[in-house]
User: What shape does this take?
Amino acid sequence: MDNIYRYSVQLLDGETLPLKLLSGRPILLVNIASKCSFASQLTALERLYQKYRNRGFEIIAFPCNQFGKNEPLEGEMLREFYRTQTKLSFVLGQKTLVNGPDAHPLFNYLKMNTRGIAQNRAIKWNFTKFLVNSEGVLVSRYAPRTKPESLHCAIEGLLENESRTLQFSKL
Assistant: This one.
């Protein structure tokens, strides 16, 4: 089965996270930027994470400077902003390229398996969101304008499917 578990990502703290360690959990992957006009979504993403994290839901956000140079922060300033100023508690990846020849392989996979605005595969802006089910399979792509709070039904559906699968496997 084709899924995200073959990839690893570098985290903001320098550690490497093999995505297979998140097997069994729905995941929202999103490219973020501190100076983007959509940066208010960071608070909404944190609320979404707080609501569902105890049920196994994960968010991995990747700072990205490819769109409007909206992520000028580097190193410790980047960590300070996302951990202290915005108080984000979900997983933060290192600054990542999502388009072009040096794009992270995870984002190449996500783009190849979905289409965005005007059926284009390329990521067009910060805060493009990808929802992955508990088997690591990409199920949806959301435009930057899609507010995180509008994803509740999709996340609930994935969590309910996971719950039903666990109950069925115990029979």
The radius of gyration is 15 Å. The chain has a mean pLDDT of 90. Residues 36 and 68 are 8 Å apart (CA to CA). Residues 4-169 form a domain with the Glutaredoxin fold (CATH 3.40.30.10).
